[in-house]
Amino acid sequence: xxxxxxxMALALGVVCASxxxxxxxxxxxxxxxSASAAAHNCIHDEDPGAPYWYCExxxxxxxxxxxxxxxxxYSRYGNWFLCRYEGDPTGGGGPxxxxxxxxxxxSPALDHDGWGFVKDSDIYWETxxxxxx
Length: 133
What we know:
The protein is an alpha+beta fold. Helix content is 15%, strand content 26%. The protein is built from one helix and eight strands. It has one helix at residues 2-21; strands at 43-44, 53-55, 61-65, 68-73, 79-81, 83-86, 99-104, 115-119. It has a three-stranded antiparallel β-sheet with strand order 1-2-5. The protein has a three-stranded antiparallel β-sheet with strand order 6-7-8, with no helix packed on it. It has a two-stranded antiparallel ribbon with strand order 3-4.
């Protein structure tokens, strides 16, 4: 639990610092960006040996495996991802319409422990930096 909170704080701190420095701090009157409007690259874990990348994503993004929804990513911040896969069209459009990002769902459903792929279009940040699966 502590690691997940630390990851969330790291990602949130980067977003807030970036937005404050550029004068783009959100307000109630400012619309949220679309997932296809990537703000910056996903962030690699601070541990050099860790395979995790942290990206901001759409809250409630479904995680798929073999055509089934195997869970959801409930938070927008602090979710970690392992790699990217160029495959079948996601149906989500965006800059990478055939890209899927491998992760584990916050709330696993069915079996497979929630491991699966989210659509690249459900990720706000650029995913080119993730390694190929």
